[in-house]
Amino acid sequence: MHDMSFHDDHVRVQRTLAIKTNVPNVCIARPKMPETVYIVAGGPNGATPALTISEGATVIACNSAILMPRPFQYWVAFDHRICNYGWWNQLSAPRVDCIHKLFSARLLNRLSMPPAVRNIKADYYFEYLPEITWPHGNNLNGVKMPRAQFLDPTRLRGGCTVSGVALQFAHYGGAKNIVLCGVDMAGTGHWDGYINEDKYHLCAGVWPWAEPMQILCEEITKRGSTVWTMSNTALKLPEWKHV
After folding, report:
1. How far apart are CA 217 and CA 214, in angstroms?
2. Per-residue confidence at 208, pLDDT binned at 50, 70, 90?
3. Share of the chain above pLDDT 90, in %
4. Cα distances (angstroms) measured from residue 236 to each of 83, 185, 210
5. Using one digit for the tens of pLDDT, what is the confidence trace for 141-154?
6. What phi and psi values does residue 192 have, to the nearest 5 degrees?
7. Residue 141 CA from chain centroid, whole number
8. Range of 115's domain?
């Protein structure tokens, strides 16, 4: 089991790009996606189905899912604190060097700062503000962002977890079928057995970000990219059976 324990070093990190970099903004570079794209996140429900996806498919890993024993073409990492998780230092160079790495501006800022952390070089970065806002157990006073504002092609909005970022990335790249795997949106477990100890409020076991993520899926589907799931999830999505 990979160590995902969180060791906060309390470094203050700006949320928008604050460094000079040659790393291109992914919303300007806009890599072209094939018709079908898979997004694999770290939920335990996706651990087995993820291994059934064809090796020739285009697959995006979210956070620690990059350590699953299968090939990936893209890796999306969002939270600037993940470079303090134990699994970050367990990534081998051969594992990540051949994968297109997409990091948030805030994570890119963090990787340029002391104290020293392992600097994995990004291929693209993205701005994520303003985030999608929605009232939930962690923010009861949150403002309901109008559905029409959930999508903005100049950024990959935060607020719906890293899976939501990957979903926007695939959509803007032109994918017609976006298939989620391991996007459980429920519970505190991970694919490798780790139990998340971060304190956030679950509603009947469901993540507080499930409702805005559901809306994001619906808005993306309205705009021509159908969102599917191939593993059990709290989201209400059609089942994908064409692996």
Report:
1. 5
2. confident
3. 69
4. 32, 11, 10
5. 889 999 999 999 99
6. -100, 10
7. 25
8. 26-229
Is a pLDDT exceeding 70 seen at residue 67?
yes
Please choose, from the candidates 62, 91, 100, 59, the residue with its C-alpha nearest in 3D space to the C-alpha of residue 79.
62
Strand pairing partners for 103?
A: 77, 125
Q: Domain count of the chain?
A: 1
Q: Are 59 and 192 in contact (CB under 8 A)?
A: no
Asked whether residue 123 is assigned to any structural domain, the reply reads yes
Is the pLDDT assigned to residue 224 strictly greater than 80? yes
The band of 116, judged by pLDDT with boundaries at 50, 70 and 90, is low
Tokens of 27: 């919303």
For residue 84, the SS3 value is: helix
53 located within any domain: yes
The answer to whether residue 172 is domain-embedded is yes
Helices (H) and strands (E) in the chain, counts: 5, 7
The DSSP annotation for 199-217 comes to ----BTTB-TTHHHHHHHH
The residues, any chain, with a CB within 8 Å of residue 171's CB and separated by 6 or more, are 151, 178, 220, 223, 225
Q: Is residue 57 part of a domain?
A: yes
H helix intervals, 124-235: 161-172, 210-222
